[in-house]
């Protein structure tokens, strides 16, 4: 069979084309530092890579949720701790005002101080994080509490605790509704902080020593209740931090597995690239000699 020049040229051109493809791929592997550049490179490996990347995306979302949860809990703890301090200050004032040596004018002045404390407590109960009210349940766009001219405080949120997702099928309650925190037994009860403060103001203004003494006991009850709420926040913070550690370990483990499948050993990849370059140059030189012309004229 007679082999024509065209057949020789076509064969040489095809060989060079194949070597060029291999050279380009080797170059892409080094540049991108990825072994899998297309589905045909490793269908099974690519499927695993896509699955792991989806898992990493989920972990990243959970980590963002955890970050929000930590900030939310920290803001809640801070607000409640400051409210506790105001309760302590008010209790100390009650001790002074319950003495028979204190006059009516002093008690009325104390009433103004307690009223300011009440307004400060309401402001703290309306604490926000990133524009959302932390004590409004899931109704975070609504101001949790309002106070009128008679010192009556109204809760405007709902009774559904604010939660975050910390796993595919796991959620964590990070927000308590304000009614449960500050008005656990409803209006008129001794552990309703706002009612206790209002009654104390009325007792001070009315020079009612018995009412002041009752308020002292009720303030102790409110203080203990807030202490329990702060302890609850602390336990949730521990759980959030534990989950954060688990997610961090999961992220590291997944990225290590992903690297083994997807990333080449860079030294080997560079050696492969150099070998392809040498093979290409040798093929180009050999073809040029056979045809006594530059293959570039036909490219």
Distance between the termini: 27 Å
pLDDT averaged residue by residue: 81
Instruction: State the CATH topology of the largest domain.
Output: f41 fragment of flagellin, N-terminal domain
Low-confidence stretches: none
Task: Write a structural description.
The two termini are 27 Å apart. β1 and β2 form a beta hairpin. The protein has helices at 5-32, 43-97, 104-125, 178-182, 193-205, 209-262, 266-291; strands at 128-129, 132-133, 145-147, 153-155, 162-167, 170-175. The strands form three sheets. The protein has a two-stranded antiparallel sheet. Strands 3-4 form a two-stranded antiparallel sheet. It contains seven helices and six strands, in the order αααββββββαααα. It folds into two domains: 5-53 and 263-298; 64-256, Up-down Bundle (f41 fragment of flagellin, N-terminal domain), CATH 1.20.1330. α2 packs antiparallel against α3, α2 (43-97) runs antiparallel to α6 (209-262) and α3 (104-125) packs antiparallel against α5 (193-205). The chain has 299 residues and is mainly α. The mean pLDDT is 81. It is rod-shaped, with a radius of gyration of 37 Å.
């Amino acid at each position: 069979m007679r082999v024509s020049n065209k057949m020789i040229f076509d064969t040489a051109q095809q060989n060079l084309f194949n070597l060029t493809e291999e050279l380009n791929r080797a170059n892409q592997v080094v540049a991108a530092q990825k072994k899998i550049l297309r589905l045909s490179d490793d269908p099974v490996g690519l499927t695993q890579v896509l699955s792991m990347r989806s898992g990493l995306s989920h972990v990243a979302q959970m980590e963002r949720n955890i970050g929000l949860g930590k900030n939310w809990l920290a803001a809640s703890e801070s607000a409640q701790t400051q409210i506790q301090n105001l309760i302590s200050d008010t209790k100390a004032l009650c001790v002074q005002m319950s003495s028979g040596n204190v006059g009516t004018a002093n008690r009325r002045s104390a009433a103004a101080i307690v009223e300011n404390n009440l307004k400060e407590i309401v402001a703290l109960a309306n604490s926000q994080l990133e524009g959302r009210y932390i004590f409004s349940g899931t109704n975070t766009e609504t101001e949790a509490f309002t106070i009128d001219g008679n010192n009556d405080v109204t809760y405007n949120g709902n009774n559904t605790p604010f939660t975050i997702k910390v796993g595919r099928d796991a959620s964590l309650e990070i927000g308590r509704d304000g009614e449960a925190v500050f008005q656990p037994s409803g209006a008129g009860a001794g552990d309703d902080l706002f009612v206790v403060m209002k009654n104390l103001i009325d007792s001070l203004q009315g020079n009612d020593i018995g009412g002041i003494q009752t308020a002292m006991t009720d303030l102790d009850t409110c203080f203990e209740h807030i202490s329990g709420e702060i302890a609850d926040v602390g336990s949730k913070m521990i759980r959030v931090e534990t989950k954060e550690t688990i997610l961090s370990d999961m992220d590291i483990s997944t990225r290590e597995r992903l690297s083994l499948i997807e990333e080449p050993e860079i030294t080997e990849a560079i050696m492969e690239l150099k070998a392809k370059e040498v093979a290409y140059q040798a093929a180009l030189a050999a073809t040029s000699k056979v045809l006594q012309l530059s293959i570039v004229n036909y490219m």
